[in-house]
Write a structure and sequence with these properties.
The chain is α/β, with parallel strands linked by helices and about 240 residues long. Helices cover about 45% and strands about 15% of the residues. The protein has eight helices and seven strands; from the N terminus they run E-H-E-H-E-H-E-H-E-H-E-H-H-E-H. The chain has a seven-stranded mixed sheet with strand order 3-2-1-4-6-5-7, with helices on both faces. Helix 5 runs parallel beside helix 8. The N and C termini lie far apart (about 40 Å).
Length: about 240
């Protein structure tokens, strides 16, 4: 089974080489592609110097567009499983096999690496945990699927779901919406415990103000998508 690790990268010059080195050491059997989303720092120079496999996007697409490029790359090159892994060093590649295993076994179409099952390692800030719990509850109400770490970018997808996301993927803060879309379309979604670390260097693009904006935008997006999907189902049944 061919596995591709998709690593989105925006201004991760301090972290990206370490992320790739740890991945190569922990999972030499997995391929990877770094998607450089028009970084304004020295990320491209680092990728070139380290001989990394990377895509250099001509325009900034944001996290969703960058990850979708990775999914398109996976489809074009015939990969069976894709894994998202952040470029900031928070995701430990030692847990990659645990995240991939339920997908390889056919038990799940999407498996999410969750920091909240065993509650080990970095648990993010209190306010973000409150927001994540709210989104988790909202998704549960909308879909019946219980996922604790809905914003985790550490996740594996099977071939069918990879092809679906290559066609269409949420552009801004896409992780919760990707779960909703997958469940609504009949894919099986679950999670396994992982241990995450704090950002290894650089600065997160999400500050306190953006966190509030994120919560409002994502919540509205989830509700609207679910309502629209329900209407599509109704029209299908009437036809």
């Amino acid at each position: 089974m061919k596995i591709l690790v998709i690593i989105p990268c925006y201004n991760e010059a301090e972290n990206i080489a370490g992320v790739v080195h740890r991945l190569r050491k922990a999972c030499p059997e997995a391929d990877y592609v770094v998607v450089n989303d028009c970084s304004t720092d020295q990320s491209v120079q680092v990728l070139k110097a380290e001989g990394c496999n990377y895509l250099d996007l001509p325009v900034n697409l944001g996290i969703g567009g960058g990850v979708q490029c990775g999914y398109r790359y996976a489809v074009e090159h015939g990969y069976d499983v894709t894994v998202q892994m952040d470029g900031d060093g928070q995701h430990d590649p030692a847990f990659l096999q645990a995240v991939v295993a339920p997908v390889l076994a056919g038990h799940l179409d999407m498996c999410i690496g969750s920091r909240f099952i065993t509650k080990e390692g970095f648990q993010t800030s209190f306010m973000r945990r409150v927001g994540i719990r709210f989104l988790s509850s909202l998704l549960h109400v909308l879909t019946g699927c219980k996922v604790l770490d809905v914003t985790s970018g550490y996740r594996a997808c099977g071939k069918a779901l990879t092809a679906r996301f290559a066609q269409r993927y949420a552009q801004d803060y896409p992780e919760p919406e990707a779960i909703l879309r997958a469940v609504c379309e009949g894919y099986k979604v679950g999670e396994v415990p992982v241990v995450m670390a704090e950002r290894q260097g650089g600065k997160s693009s999400i500050n306190a103000l953006k966190s509030v904006y994120y919560m409002v935008k994502v919540s509205l997006s989830l509700v609207i998508y679910r309502l629209c999907f329900t209407k599509k189902d109704k029209r299908r049944n009437e036809a």
